[in-house]
Amino acid sequence: RLDFSELKGDVPVVLLGSPTSNPWVQLLYDQLDFQLVHPAPDGFDVCVNRRPKPGERATYVTALHSQALSEGYAIITMVPNLTGKAFALIIAGTSTEGTEAAGELVTNMDRLGESLRGLGIAARQPVRKLELLIKISFVASASATSQIVAYRIAP
User: d(Cα 26, Cα 34) in Å, to the nearest integer?
Assistant: First the structure.
């Protein structure tokens, strides 16, 4: 259970889900370039890229197929909390599979370190803000692969 004071304190917090499923996330959303929003009538979120860089899309949409490979997206974001005294880690997906895959990446230190090194981010490099947009491919609700398709870093 989270209390509002924890988003202003000096202890890091982890928030799971988009504002649709976790209203606490909305308090930090103005800091994010990658935002999961719920405009889709099919019930799935889409990822909006508020400041696309060359080669990036403005919107990333979930593609579901009942018997074939489906695609979704997830964000892993580390931003300062409301007072800047600690960090908030936000893990959210356009679907349950997306959130699960992002959680698996964050909790697998070897894989996360390898992914960050691939982006040129050193393991102990201090960052003020980090945003990862991950593309998830899955079949029948089982996560198959994930790859970082866009990122932001503020040293």
Answer: 13
